[in-house]
Amino acid sequence: MSLKLSFPAGSFANTGDAFSFIYPFLHFDIRFINASPSRQGAQLFDKAQVVELTKDLAVNNDDYLALHDGAVMEDLGDDNINFVVYRRKPGYQLELFSINAASPGSIDITSLINAAGSRGFTMAIYTDHQKSRWQSELFVHHYEEAGRPHAHLRKIEHPLFTKHYGPVIDLSQNPGHEIQTYSMCLAAAPEMWFGPGSWLYFDQERVRSFTGALAITAPAPDIVYVHLFDRSIPDYETPEILALQQQFRQWVDMDAVEAGLHDKLGPHIVAGTPVIETITFTDIIEVDDPEFGEDDE
Fold this sequence. Notes:
Blueprint: E1 2-8, H1 15-22, E2 32-36, E3 43-44, H2 50-60, E4 64-68, E5 83-89, E6 94-100, H3 109-118, E7 123-127, H4 129-132, H5 140-145, E8 155-156, H6 162-165, E9 168-169, E10 179-181, E11 184-186, E12 191-194, H7 204-208, E13 215-220, E14 223-227, H8 239-252, H9 254-263, E15 277-279, E16 284-286, H10 290-296
Antiparallel strand pairs: 1-6, 1-7, 2-3, 2-4, 4-5, 5-6, 7-12, 8-9, 10-11, 12-14, 13-14, 15-16
């Protein structure tokens, strides 16, 4: 299961601070760790040198950190391993942990979320990204390669991609889409935590009063947990689930929040640009980086 935990820029003093924050909540045996751009390739993790490693990460202050429990360093990104990827994304004023909990108990999510509250996190979303992937897929040719119909989906012109790939899918019509935007990763996911930083944009009482969720609780001050639907169900794209996601988005004004956050992005960040990540230890590619827009113009 995939957990995205987002913070406003400046929530962590450096990469060492980010590592020391997340490390106590990881209950799996880390085998490989990597940071970029200071380190070339992954290194075997040595638990006995955590203090020295934290100091080294603080000095280098990389924008990227990855660790996992796979058998070889290339296993990062495999759904069957436990991993954590931390990224600092200045163009989005965002710091983001992408966490894969492949085995039960491998991540202490409850304690992690509570600790994140003291850092003012904006939002955390917990989902099965394989089941939700097509709600966030932008490119028509990916539908065609997978043999999925797309004629019923509205297409739009995209300022970065249309000249290379033709019209793209309008993600705004998909109530289950996930998107990274100013200071947070947004989605009407199966499970969501609205953090202290989210109340700059969402109305807390409105979130707490939604009646269609399985459960809504307040596990800590200024944190609201929404269990919208069961993340273990086999299909997230049934009419019932999509309707529920749409109802929730409308109730909490998520579309308006998303649009307002997009307006805060810089001129080279395009609203609606998908997050396409190649998670490896040797090459980190994200088409939503501001540099992509600059080079493409």
